[in-house]
Amino acid sequence: MAVRAVVIEADGGSRGNPGPAGYGAVVRDPATGEVLAERAESIGTATNNVAEYRGLIAGLEAAAELGAAEVDARMDSKLVVEQMCGRWQIKHPGLRPLAARAAALVDRFESVRFSWIPRERNRHADALANAAMDTAAGRPSRSAAGSAGGEPPREVAGAESPGRAQAREVAARAATRSTGTDPATAKASWEPRPSFTATRLILVRHGETEWTVQHRYAGRADVPLSESGQAQARATATRVAALAPSVAAVLSSPLSRCTATAEAIAAALGDLPVRPQDDWIECDFGDWDGHTFAEVRDRWPGELDAWLASTRVAPPGGESFTEVGQRVDRAMVALREAYPGETVVVVSHVSPIKLALRDALAAGDALLHRLYLDAAGISVLDMWPDGGVAVRSVNDTAHLPVR
User: Fold this and answer.
1) Fewer Cβ within 10 Å of end Cβ, the chain: N or C?
2) From the candidates 263, 282, 303, 319, which is the catalytic residue?
3) Spatial separation of the C-alpha atoms in residues 72 and 102, rounded to whole Å
């Protein structure tokens, strides 16, 4: 039977930061305090923050499975709470995919409230997380009443409760895995990886439009390719066909400047179908659409300064880069899962491509204002199942006439 409202208590941690890590989450009835669900898992080697986000995600997933409409999410992680509330920036690139997953789950509920609580009020989730960490580290789980370090007794589920038994079983399975699929937990290495096991992503910016030449913001306005842009699309199609004779899919933003570019590429690849994907559409620049930078500076000086200073700020009536990044993260995960070991062409816009490259390079937000992407430029990156990424080229324009 579905429940209307629930309380989530979530926690996570690691022995070493990074080190053997795990999380715990508890879903309660807000009226009675009854435990409706427990989740716990070891996640291999990770940081405290990664484990905390994984605990939140597990709690939200459990609440969704219960059919909840209203969620009160409580954590003793100030960082996760403040980032999910939008008050703190998510600076670590390894946390961005996790925050995006959590945000996507939040959208499934009518309302979600995040609040920080002291650790002593989060004992149940903390105990589940500690059990998962102990198993990941190859040590017996510490009892709730006799944990090391003189911690106070915790009022948690009994040692043989179904939730605790499930936590130990899942944690034991997870401990046999060296890493997860999150970029933050993927092992760094100089060793060359076999490209045939990677999903190769060929990112193409659409061809030129009249607004491109005039340096106007072009967000959701459906500006078509110019005559020059159509020629660029044909040249790009020839180049992509040479780079990747075998392509599994051609995806595109639904705007016509992208679909026209994608159709030229698809024809050169043997008349593949073009699949429009909303997650790859350009940032919504709101009231700035159709204006030049100078016009925006003149009419919205304060709003422009705020937008340039933070990816969380949206143009008036528009969309922030943080919001664009969340849907790009979602699209990248979907590509890696749907096309393992295959090559996919994505025709998109400046903002989504920059955000994909920012995260692939583990770069900061400053890259968004320093990286130049030409119309019809090509960037290539490989993604492996364990979260590993290799950027092979950025803004290749060798196929275009020199201007």
Assistant:
1) N
2) 282
3) 14
Q: Which residue, among 345, 336, 350, has the nearest Cα to 384 in the 3D structure? A: 336
- SS3 of 100, please? helix
Q: Known catalytic residue: 206?
A: yes
**Residue 329: closest CA among 183, 180, 113:** 183
Closest CA to 169 of 41, 82, 50, 81: 41
Q: For each successive 10 residues of the chain (403 residues), what is the average pLDDT?
A: 87 91 95 93 93 96 94 94 86 87 91 90 94 83 39 36 43 39 48 69 98 95 96 97 93 97 96 95 96 95 90 92 93 91 96 95 89 97 86 96 78
Annotated catalytic residue within 206, 291, 349, 399? 206
Q: DSSP class of residue 216?
A: B
Coil, strand or helix: which one is 76? Answer: coil
Chain CA centroid to CA 252, Å: 19
CA-based angle 383:388:391, to the nearest 5?
A: 60
